[in-house]
Write a structure and sequence with these properties.
The protein has helices at residues 18-24, 26-36, 52-62, 67-81; strands spanning 6-9, 14-17. The protein is mainly α. It folds into two domains: 1-37, no CATH class; 41-87, no CATH class. Helix 3 (52-62) crosses helix 4. It is elongated, with a radius of gyration of 17 Å.
């Protein structure tokens, strides 16, 4: 029997089998990928013409999260990090 590969989705609070994922179709795969995976870059890949706050907002905007929700969360994180509140 071949090995199975699974991941735990924090967004959906469930375990997803990659075998099942391949059978769900592209729309569902895109949805899971956009909400369950993120990237960690080895270099600082911030947009130099954006403020720190704007850089923090980008991925949430791409996911389609409402602007007022994104800004509130980013401002909270900036306060916790001691960063100036610039978005």
């Amino acid at each position: 029997m071949p090995p199975t590969f699974e991941f735990h989705s924090l967004v959906h609070d469930s375990v997803v089998s990659f075998d099942q994922l391949w059978k769900t179709g592209l729309d569902q795969m895109d949805n899971i990928r956009s909400k369950s995976f993120s990237f960690l870059f080895q270099n600082t890949n911030l947009m130099p013409n954006f403020s720190a706050g704007e850089n923090m907002c980008i991925s949430a905007y791409i996911q389609g999260i409402e602007e007022r929700i994104v800004k509130a969360e980013v401002l909270k994180n900036m306060d916790e990090l001691g960063l100036p509140r610039t978005i």
